[in-house]
Design brief:
By secondary structure, this protein is of the alpha+beta class. It contains eight helices and eleven strands. Among the domains are: 107 residues, Beta Barrel (Ku70, Chain: A, Domain 2), CATH 2.40.290; 66 residues, no CATH class. The radius of gyration is 28 Å and the shape is extended. The chain starts with a strand and ends with a helix.
Length: 301
């Protein structure tokens, strides 16, 4: 697994080299906007409606809205100075707290933290003392430009770093009106408790898969199988123009053809598709190529 950040955990006067790794991934099906008539992917442009023209990045600044239609414009240098004022990057432990005291609403995103360099001993020491004390570390974490709050807690042989919202980022529920309700009867309470007991079990999120994603993927496979694929002609035009009008070769087909040309030691195994020969093999290969391409698109999207 490739680390996305390298730095240090500051624990009093002790510094522990550490590396950060992604602990989550977004598998929500991603859809692109296409022109239904020709299948071309819609381009998102940076356009000034007043000047009626598209803008390059060097003409675009960042503004903070102070009133309706009024902005305080910031330069890159001003923002860089603010970011420098937040200190050097790292995981600075501020205090140790009880995990049960943390409202889950504060948690945003989780990362894995592994040891960096020759820090295995100090890394294990901090993890062990937290496990034995039953506490977690509340830290200020600066990754790239922003400083955020985070929980550093032991999870098996590793640490988990759970990025948190600041206190004023939580919206209080004071303005939600709860109407008066009649008292709960003993029978209602007993029946509700019985139902809760029947539905109680160990926490296992794998028992509750993403049915929406599964349905989207199943429909995608059906469309690939039926060759109901819309092809973006604009990307083809760009490639053919750069090649001087040459034929565009599908990458998957190019890789498959390259594999056939590789000399492999030992006996060569013949696939079932090759054994079938003729048009059947060609059809099977094309179908597999389409399914592979669709799967790669879903994985990267």
């Amino acid at each position: 697994m490739r680390a996305i950040w390298s730095g240090e955990i500051a624990f009093g006067l002790v510094t522990i080299p550490a590396k950060l790794y992604s602990a989550t991934k977004d598998l929500t099906p991603q859809f692109h906007q296409l022109h239904k008539e020709c299948g071309t992917r819609i381009a998102l442009v940076r356009r000034c409606p007043k000047c009626n023209r598209d803008l390059p990045w060097e003409e675009i600044g960042k503004g903070y809205e102070v009133a309706k239609g009024e902005y305080a414009l910031f330069t890159k240098e001003e923002l860089a100075k603010i970011e420098e004022g937040e200190g050097a990057g790292g995981i600075d432990i501020a205090e140790f707290i009880e995990l049960k005291d943390v409202d889950l609403a504060y948690i945003e995103k989780s990362y894995w933290v592994g040891p960096g360099g020759k820090s295995a001993h100090s890394y294990a020491l901090l993890r062990t003392v937290l496990e034995q004390s039953g506490r977690v570390a509340l830290a200020r974490v600066k990754i790239r430009t922003r400083t955020r709050l985070a929980l550093l807690r032991p999870r098996g042989l590793h640490f988990s770093l759970d990025m948190m919202r600041f206190a004023d980022e939580l919206v209080k529920a004071d303005e939600i009106v709860i109407p008066a309700a009649k008292p709960v009867t003993d029978r209602e309470l007993a029946l509700a408790a019985s139902l809760v007991d029947q539905l109680t079990g160990p926490f296992d999120p794998a028992k509750h898969p993403d049915e929406y994603r599964a349905a989207v993927h199943a429909l995608v496979d059906e469309k690939v199988e039926a060759d109901q694929i819309t092809r973006d002609s604009s990307s083809d035009e760009g490639q053919t123009a750069s090649a001087g009008g040459a034929k565009v070769i599908d990458l998957a087909e190019l890789l498959a053809a390259s594999l056939k040309r590789v000399d492999r030691p030992g006996p060569v195994k013949t696939s079932s598709a090759e054994a079938a020969g003729g048009a059947a093999a060609d059809t099977s290969e094309k179908r597999a190529t389409k399914k592979t391409a669709a799967s790669k698109n879903r994985a990267t999207g």
